[in-house]
Design a protein that fits this description.
The structure is a homodimer. The first copy, chain A, is an alpha/beta fold and about 350 residues long. Chain A is built from 13 helices and twelve strands. In chain A, helix 1 (about 10-15) crosses helix 3 (about 35-45), helix 8 (about 165-175) packs across helix 9 (about 195-205) and helix 10 crosses helix 11. The structure holds a DNA duplex (16 and 16 nucleotides).
Chain lengths: ~350, ~350
DNA sequence: TTGTAAGCGTTATCAC
DNA sequence: GTGATAACGCTTACAA
């Protein structure tokens, strides 16, 4: 079945031309006579020839491939970033190859090596978990753009969403609805959680309201547990800012179980605008990052490096937007404690 | 930043040996003196040398890479299959590179070409949407295993889960609980839907019960709409077999909205055991496919072809298992219509 | 417009 | 053990 594949020489012989001419035809050079072009194409078709990407890269000493590392295939979050990157890459004539390390540093490191061993034109790392040193190392070999990971390495460009602004968006939304007792469920050791917490705290201060952070996790269980603790503590609150959508859904479940209505009694917001938040019977108010644009931007940033248009590190920060749905509304009663 | 990368020659010069020796060291050949090996390794480290995968593949005329096409990055379903394939590939000394076509035939076709242009040792296609001819064509060039896609091409191996058995599992479970009025929400044009429907119908017949298929879709909205129609029709039913988890969740929502309790009034089951079904406040009874094993099996199947151990097409069919959760239970009242 | 020949960075086959 | 030298399949000046 898998016999020897035809090479350019085979095509050349069959078409009765030189290999160089076949090469020109394959690369769609305009300076080939239509007649020759036809016969070469015909010969190629008959033989089932298709160019050998590796040999091509080797000979031309330039790569047409873009390596993209997805930290976690389980997270559909990255799919849209890849789509954006994919589209931009195609427009630039680059082919994307993907790798994944399942959010494990050792595997991810191996994948980065695999990807770079193909001598790609560049590397885009989506939310990588490897130490900064590994990324910097890769950057000495090929342009690297880190997406959704802050990094101050001078050789590495970054594209991030503004998690601080996103958290503020939620707080503003809730305060605008009349809430004053807004609790933030913290994401713990997650990379983004510190930033989101900071945004929450700053926004609360800006509104002259006391911030209240309850430790939690980026999981459903974490959200549920945090709400259980809050309820047990007897502390009053009318709105919850979840660490992410999953966490917020956990909170939702715990509130329901406690007999509280959302948003009549308590408003809940998430973060990430995942498919989960969009579910009809969830309808979670959340924050959306411009994911596709982030993917495109990552490629564009890479191209600038490739073209030498820019040599200083790029630090792109994109603005998220609020997606109001059904889990947020006015607080249950006029809150007279405000301003005290 | 991106200066010329050191080559084997550079390392050889620095270590004061021939290029061939460096090659041997890089490939961990045992017939190199420890002293030489050390100096070569040292030189390589100092230079930051790492082998050029493409040149290597070209020269050795054998590929160490395995191309994996993921039809849809949005679907975490594939993540586990990839993990299984990944692990098996690593054990076999293969590197995995991924491609995705976003479930669009044209893109997918391009990706298959990209992947094959790297002359991989083999190709694994996860639920591909391209026409069979494209897959068969690829198979003339490199061994191909199609996963989650039935195909009778002699050159292509397949790995599938037994959707018929899976649907039967659900029916058996429900009938075992005492249900007799079990309705199947059909997945429409989805590849797997015909098989699941067949399994449902066969199982119902086996139990001497009348099958009832309501057209629907692999979406939440589809599930909700189907239930709305069913309810409006006034037809009695006590259990619903969803086309997939998303569809079942839609059904869940519509039932709740109609004031029906799950599973007290109606039992609902899904299919796929997605993260969604595992959510605490969903707790959907569903069917799980051995995804990781499917990934491993795909690689093993490929290896058989590579080693020439097998030349006839493999048709692996794996058995799914039932995951009972909270959305299924006994029917509301002893159903006296049974056996009539 | 087409052909010739010299690489590209490896591996592999031999002699030494 | 070690080191020339010829592939591998292609691109790319440079000639013709």
């Amino acid at each position: 079945m898998t016999t020897r594949r035809p090479t350019m020489d085979d095509v050349a012989v069959r078409a009765g031309v030189s290999r160089a001419l076949v090469s020109l035809v394959m690369r769609e050079s305009p300076r080939v006579s239509p007649a020759r072009r036809q016969s070469v194409l015909a010969a190629a078709a008959e033989l089932g020839y298709s160019p050998h990407a590796m040999a091509r890269a080797l000979a031309s000493r330039e790569s047409r491939v873009l390596g993209v590392l997805i930290s976690d295939l389980h997270n559909p979050y990255f799919a849209e970033i890849v789509e954006g990157a994919d589209a931009a890459a195609r427009e630039a004539g680059l082919e994307v190859i993907l790798g994944t390390g399942n959010r494990r540093a050792a595997e991810e490191r191996r994948r980065i090596e695999t990807l770079t061993s193909f001598r790609p034109a560049g590397l885009i790392l989506l939310s990588p978990v490897v130490p900064a040193a590994v990324i910097e190392q890769a950057a000495t070999v090929t342009p690297v753009v880190a997406v959704e990971r802050t990094l101050d390495a001078p050789g590495v460009d970054t594209v991030n969403d503004d998690g601080e602004a996103g958290a503020a968006l939620v707080v503003d939304h809730l305060v605008g609805l009349g809430h004053t007792r807004v609790v933030h469920l913290d994401g713990g050791r997650g990379a983004k959680s510190a930033i989101r917490r900071r945004g929450y705290v700053a926004a609360m201060h800006r509104h002259g309201l006391p911030p209240r952070v309850e430790p939690s996790e980026y999981t459903e269980e974490g959200g549920a547990a945090a709400v259980a603790r809050l309820l047990a503590g007897g502390e009053p609150f009318t709105a919850l800012v979840g660490a992410n959508d999953l966490n917020a859904v956990g909170a939702l479940g715990a509130l329901e179980e406690a007999g509280l209505r959302v948003p009549a009694d308590v408003s809940v917001a998430g973060y990430d605008n995942t498919a989960l938040s969009r579910l009809l019977h969830v309808g979670l108010t959340t924050v959306d990052q411009p994911r596709e644009r982030m993917g495109r931007l990552a490629v564009e940033t890479l191209l600038e490096r490739l073209r030498g248009t820019r040599t200083v590190p790029a630090r792109h920060v994109l603005h998220p937007s609020l997606v109001p749905r059904r889990t947020t509304g006015r607080p249950p009663a006029p809150d007279v404690t405000a301003g005290r």
